[in-house]
Design brief:
By secondary structure, the protein is α+β, with helices and mostly antiparallel strands. The protein is built from 7 helices and 34 strands. The strands form 9 sheets. An 8-stranded parallel beta sheet has the order 12-9-8-7-4-3-2-13. Strands 15-23-22-17-18 form a 5-stranded mixed beta sheet, with no helix packed on it. The protein has a 5-stranded antiparallel beta sheet with strand order 25-28-33-30-31, with no helix packed on it. α3 runs parallel beside α4. The longest helix has 18 residues. 49% of the residues are buried.
Length: 663
């Protein structure tokens, strides 16, 4: 455990961040957009904009799911307890995260070569935490005041720095501080970060990584030997902003999948301002200090200090970084035992806890004091469920009886303060009467697109008195088509699961569980009863590659591993079309036409009946070119089989088509 000193004041900038102004100006037109989300295949690409919000397929019966409180130890959110080798990690208040520091010298051991690394100390900790079902949040440090415990060194300067890097003494803390502006040191740190990322980026054992390395505890300050020299005689031991920015960029390049956090918005001169995948960690969360007391998390407009976490975020225009990156840190140790006693408020040196969580959009916090919390404490439970994501399936959409193939949809909402940050695979499955999963299907659904339904406005946005809550995300509808070929006739439970990748490493991995009464401990959520009847009459499936269909221009039959029949029709659009003749319109009138397709990017197409009016339809991106999705459009059909349905696009590419059905 570390000791804290009062933070020194920082100059208050007068201009609000651009993001705040945009939200303030747009607040009258609710709901607000959900901001930029990272694409499925990378987290560091340019934002792709607001996700599509398709409506449920009107032809599918609706099954409303009952709500229930989500578990307290959902993965990648809530409290993190400190790692202690050999100790039972699942004691105390329920949690799914383990926190650990590591000294840089524990990995960079070779006195003659800074490019040689021994990762055993990290792997041992990751493996042990995984064996308890927990992901690890971590930070590497160079100087650590007092004893970090667990055998870690206080002075973690790698021996290969000796003779190349000047060392200074921080007399306030008794630490040895290397010259962070030294070119040799900077090259060595960037080499370490590159090797760190090459080995661990995307490792399912790791939840969050603090950039660390710089300053006391790796917290990017060397107080009182820091940049604020106006009121003291201490020299500045921090690196220049330009040199610190090199470390930030090195981390951002090395970690494309695992979530990164840096201490302050103004660290390295705001080098992370334009890096949407970099979050922040508030290591003095919801504490009030000084005389008179001032908050170190909440902004000045809410009684915070000029140097508070969220004041800095406002000044850098990154108070909405939570839309793309996680917000972590630590509940200030002095208040951990009583931080939630007055929930949802605070008292004395504990600030307004609910406001801290809501405005920071907190996902997780180190909180060793949580070991003494009661799991039945309603205030703590409300706080933990509010942190990060709190996902529920509002409704499932599917036919109660199906054969051959059928479409399944779900509508998911988020009552937390942040999205889920990782692209975990969501699967559908069937359970038999004994509870055995007999068939599964992976879907292209992305939980990261389910944004919080409400957000709390900063007073600085000037959109209403505090607290003002704004509509933000909407319930997100997803659907896909599943192939029932080979499933034995009978009754099943249709189930859904978001798979924690840690399950591939440890059978004890904590399962992501939805806030629904039908959520099972094995991770599967009951969506409702489904009867498979191979003799039944599903809507007729018109395969895109079938003989008798007409293709024009560049349209061609292509292999597709996850498509019905293993094939699809691609290269549609730019004048190329696909026509399905002889489509049965039954007794005529308006029918629901479902198009199953693949498209790794969002596209549009025209769908028309015979030579009639064309309907332009948006097709959201699917996971890749092999994983189908579906959209449904209403079309007026003639009675009988006199209908020909054509799909194409005169001026741009269309999605690849697997099949269509009419219902």
């Amino acid at each position: 455990m570390r000791t804290f000193a009062q933070r020194c004041g920082r100059r208050l900038l007068t201009a609000l961040g651009s993001t705040a102004l945009v939200l303030a100006l747009g607040a009258a037109a609710l709901p607000l957009t959900a901001g930029a989300l990272p694409p499925v295949d990378t987290v560091n690409a340019a934002p792709r904009g607001v996700p599509e919000r398709p409506d449920p397929d009107p032809s599918l019966p609706v099954h409303t799911l009952a709500r229930a409180d989500a578990p307290l130890d959902n993965p990648l959110k809530g409290f993190a307890r400190f790692y202690r080798p050999g100790a039972d990690q699942n004691t105390g208040y329920p949690h799914s995260l383990t926190w650990s520091y590591f000294g840089l010298s524990e990995v960079m051991k070779d006195p003659s070569d800074c490019s040689r690394y021994d990762w055993s100390v990290l792997d041992r900790a990751l493996d042990e935490s995984a064996s308890y079902g927990n992901q690890t949040a971590l930070r590497f440090y160079i100087e650590y005041p007092d004893d970090p415990g667990n055998g870690h060194p206080s002075n973690a300067i790698p021996p290969c720095f000796d003779g190349h890097v000047a060392y200074r003494t921080n007399l306030r803390w008794g630490t040895t501080s290397p010259d962070y502006d030294n070119a040799y040191l900077l090259d060595a740190l960037k080499g370490f970060i590159a090797a760190f990322g090459a080995r661990y980026d995307g490792d399912p054992r790791i939840g969050f990584i603090h950039m660390g390395l710089i300053g006391l505890w790796g917290e990017w300050h060397t107080w009182p030997y820091d940049t604020d020299t106006s009121g003291d005689s201490y020299p500045n031991y921090m690196p220049t902003d330009a040199h610190a920015a090199e470390i930030v960029r090195a981390y951002d390049s090395a970690f494309r999948r695992t979530k990164l956090e840096i201490r302050y918005a103004d660290s390295a001169g705001g080098a992370a301002d334009d890096l949407p995948s970099v979050g922040y960690h508030d290591d003095s969360f919801c504490f009030r200090e000084g005389s008179p007391l001032a908050g170190v998390t909440l902004p000045v407009s809410m009684g915070g200090a000029s140097y508070s976490q969220l004041q800095r975020a406002l000044e850098h225009g990154v108070e909405n970084r939570w839309t793309t990156a996680s917000m972590g840190g630590e509940v200030r140790p002095e208040i951990q035992s009583r931080a939630f006693t007055d929930w949802p408020n605070g008292s004395g040196d504990v600030d307004d806890m609910k406001a801290c969580i809501e405005l920071e959009h907190t996902t997780w916090k180190m909180n060793e004091g949580s070991a003494a919390y009661s799991s039945s404490d309603a205030g703590v439970g409300a706080a933990v469920r509010l942190m990060g994501y709190d996902l529920a399936v509002d409704s499932a959409h599917f036919h109660d009886t199906a054969a051959h193939s059928t479409t399944v949809g779900v509508r998911i909402s988020n009552d937390g303060v942040a999205p889920f940050y990782y692209p975990w695979t969501i699967s559908l499955g069937l359970k038999d009467s004994s509870g055995n999963v007999v068939r599964t299907w992976d879907t292209p659904w992305d939980l990261r697109e389910v944004m919080p339904k409400k957000i709390r406005a900063f007073p600085d946005w000037n959109v209403g008195s505090d607290p003002t809550y704004l509509d933000y995300g909407s319930s997100r509808y997803f659907d896909t088509t599943v192939d029932l070929t080979g499933v034995t006739a009978g009754g099943y439970q249709l189930v859904m699961k978001a798979k924690n990748p840690l399950e591939d490493v440890s059978s004890a991995a904590k399962k992501l569980r939805f806030a629904n009464a039908g959520q099972q401990a094995d991770g599967w959520l009951d969506l409702g009863d489904l009867t498979v009847d191979p003799g039944g009459t599903d809507p007729a499936v018109h395969e895109a590659e079938a003989d008798g269909n007409t293709r024009t221009g560049t349209a061609v039959i292509a292999d597709c591993a996850h498509c019905s029949g293993g094939a699809k029709v691609g290269y549609l659009g730019n004048g190329a079309t696909l026509t399905f003749p002889g489509v049965d319109g039954g007794d005529g009138a308006t029918k629901s036409v479902t198009v199953r397709y693949t498209s790794a990017v969002a596209r549009s197409a025209t769908v028309r009946v015979d030579g009639g009016m064309s309907r332009t339809v948006a097709f959201p991106a699917t996971a890749d070119w092999e994983t189908p999705g579906s959209v449904t459009v209403s079309l007026d059909l003639q009675p009988g089989t006199r209908n020909a349905i054509t799909i194409g696009n005169d001026s741009d590419w269309s999605p690849d088509v697997d099949w269509i059905t009419v219902s």
